[in-house]
């Protein structure tokens, strides 16, 4: 029973699909290449090189020296801070020695030390605070001060009247001493050794304060510097990211040259090399398309002649076996002619300059092409129907190519649907999409096979239906030409003899 025009039934929306998947064969080849690289093919195991980030590489080379130099900067700052802290305190010790030298007096040809009250106040001798001092006469005699204070030998070992400094220990704490030899110009006497010292605690405190003042801001500045470097580099390589997005947005068959002015000059040689590669690839693809088209054209004439001769021979043949053989020849030439026509159509669909788009009524094309298959559907015992509105549904497309899409989908559905079965063609609007649906009650396609059925010459294992494996590949190629996507989804039939197959072609509402 044929019900060509069925009332359009509401069906659940199936537009929750994803983006149009990449060609399964290409992905399979890439996976196979990756597997061979990883495992070394047949020559033994090898290691697949890791992908490296250009931004990460630059950051590594910039930040690694920065973090290595930072501890060196801290160490240098510490040494400089100590020297800076020594300067004012060493001047204080020098002044103390000058005060101490002013307290030296000569009595009866002998050198004595008489400390005045102001001098003692200036050289207060509280432990760990103030100034420690000591005076030693020309012959090593003790003149005054702290006897335990470390000091050099009273005999001059350096220049006279010149200040010298060194670090020592006194009573389990560190001190800084200053010393000099003072020549009083007395006959038969040598110079007097004067020593002043103080604790290094205040020096260390000052050095620590200097270090904190210099180092602490670096803990805040350094992360900010890292962020600014990262931000600057990110902005610097943004043209590369923009180029990457433009390349990803290209259609798989777009082999046009890349605009070299849209990329930084530093990657100009890379763009030039890519354009050279695209040019060679475009020439190879064009040569392949021409070969397929020429070969198909050359095959059409002998196939037509062979079919004609076989049909004429069938009329004259009386032997049943000869009739059967000639019938097989005719059927083979029919299949070969269809394969050639499909190859020609594939070459035509792949040619980006061959598709002229116009506004057309998708409902009218669906109705016309469904009518073409009515007789064959009746002969096969399959109920072929169309669910469409009377209102036109306009899309931008090529009428012959869209007609071929429907022919291939209906042909596949009839081939794989056992009698009594059901095949339904429908055109629907959904939000921003127009959906062309061909649904059957056949055995269905397993989820793991749904991407691969669009590969050229691929056929699901276990099928007995005749076919070249080009039908769905042509459908996807033409759909991509129309900026549409093809999906195999679960069938939405309420009854039938099998799980069924539902193929959807989703056109954008404004697809060109």
pLDDT averaged over residues: 77
Q: What is the strand tally?
A: 15
How do the strands of the widest beta sheet line up side by side? 1-10-12-13-15-14
The biggest sheet amounts to: 6 strands, mixed
CATH class of the largest domain: Alpha Beta
CATH homologous group name of the largest domain: Histidine kinase-like ATPase, C-terminal domain
CATH architecture of the largest domain: 2-Layer Sandwich
In terms of DSSP E residues, the strand content is 15-25%
- The level of helicity is 40-55%
Number of helices: 11
Features:
single chain, 512 residues, alpha+beta, Heat Shock Protein 90, Beta-Lactamase, Helix Hairpins, six-stranded mixed sheet, five-stranded antiparallel sheet, 15 strands, 48% helix, 17% strand, rod-shaped
Characterization of this structure:
There is one protein chain. The chain has 512 residues and is of the alpha+beta class. It has 3 domains: 1-37 and 357-512, Histidine kinase-like ATPase, C-terminal domain (Heat Shock Protein 90); 76-208, Beta-Lactamase (2-Layer Sandwich), CATH 3.30.450; 255-351, Signal transduction histidine kinase, dimerisation/phosphotransfer (DHp) domain (Helix Hairpins), CATH 1.10.287. Helix content is 48%, strand content 17%. The chain contains 11 helices and 15 strands. The protein has a 6-stranded mixed beta sheet with strand order 1-10-12-13-15-14. A 5-stranded antiparallel beta sheet has the order 5-4-8-7-6. A two-stranded antiparallel sheet has the order 2-3. Strand 4 and strand 5 (142-145) form a beta hairpin. Helix 2 (54-102) runs antiparallel to helix 4 (201-236). It is rod-shaped, with a radius of gyration of 49 Å. Residues 7-31 and 33-46 have low confidence and may be disordered.
């Amino acid at each position: 029973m044929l019900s060509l025009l069925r009332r359009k039934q509401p069906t659940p929306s199936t537009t929750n699909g994803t983006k149009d998947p990449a060609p399964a064969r290409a992905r399979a080849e890439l996976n196979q290449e990756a597997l061979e690289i990883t495992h070394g093919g047949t020559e033994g195991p090898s290691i697949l090189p890791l992908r490296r980030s250009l931004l990460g590489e630059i950051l590594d080379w910039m930040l690694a020296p920065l973090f290595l130099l930072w501890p060196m900067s801290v160490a240098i700052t510490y040494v400089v801070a100590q020297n800076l802290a020594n300067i004012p305190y060493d001047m204080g010790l020098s002044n103390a020695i000058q005060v101490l030298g002013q307290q030296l007096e000569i009595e009866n040809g002998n050198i004595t030390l008489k400390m005045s009250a102001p001098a003692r106040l200036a050289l207060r001798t509280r432990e760990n605070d103030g100034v420690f001092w000591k005076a030693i006469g020309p012959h090593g005699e003790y003149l005054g001060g702290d006897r335990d204070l470390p000091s050099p030998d009273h005999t001059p070992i350096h220049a006279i009247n010149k200040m010298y400094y060194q670090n020592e220990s006194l009573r389990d704490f560190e001190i800084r001493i200053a010393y000099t030899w003072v020549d009083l110009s007395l006959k038969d006497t040598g110079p007097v050794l004067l020593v002043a010292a103080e604790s290094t605690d205040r020096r260390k405190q000052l050095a620590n304060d200097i270090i904190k003042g210099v180092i602490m801001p670096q803990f805040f500045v350094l992360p900010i510097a890292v962020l600014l470097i990262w931000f600057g580099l990110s902005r610097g390589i943004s043209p590369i990211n923009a180029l990457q997005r433009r390349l990803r947005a290209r259609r798989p068959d777009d082999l046009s040259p890349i605009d070299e002015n849209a990329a930084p000059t530093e990657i100009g040689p890379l763009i030039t090399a890519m354009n050279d590669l695209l040019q060679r690839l475009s020439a190879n693809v064009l040569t392949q398309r021409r070969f397929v088209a020429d070969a198909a054209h050359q095959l059409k004439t002998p196939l037509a002649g062979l079919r004609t001769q076989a049909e004429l021979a069938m009329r004259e043949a009386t032997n049943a076996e000869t009739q059967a053989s000639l019938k097989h020849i005719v059927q083979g030439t029919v299949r070969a002619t269809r394969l050639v026509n499909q190859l020609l159509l594939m070459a035509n669909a792949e040619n980006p300059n061959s598709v002229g788009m116009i506004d057309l009524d998708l409902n009218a094309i669906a109705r016309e092409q469904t009518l073409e298959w009515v007789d064959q559907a009746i002969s096969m015992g399959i109920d072929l129907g169309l669910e469409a509105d009377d209102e036109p549904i306009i899309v931008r497309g090529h009428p012959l190519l869209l007609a071929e899409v429907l022919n291939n989908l209906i042909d596949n559905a009839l081939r794989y649907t056992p009698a009594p079965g059901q095949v339904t063609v429908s055109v629907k609007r959904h939000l921003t999409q127009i959906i062309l649906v061909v649904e059957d009650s056949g055995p269905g396609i397993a989820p793991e096979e749904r991407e691969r059925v669009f590969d050229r010459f691929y056929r699901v294992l276990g099928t007995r239906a005749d076919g070249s494996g080009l039908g769905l590949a042509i459908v996807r190629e033409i759909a991509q030409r129309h900026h549409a996507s093809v999906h195999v989804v679960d069938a939405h039939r309420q009854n039938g003899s099998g799980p069924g197959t539902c193929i959807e072609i989703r056109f954008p509402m404004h697809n060109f």
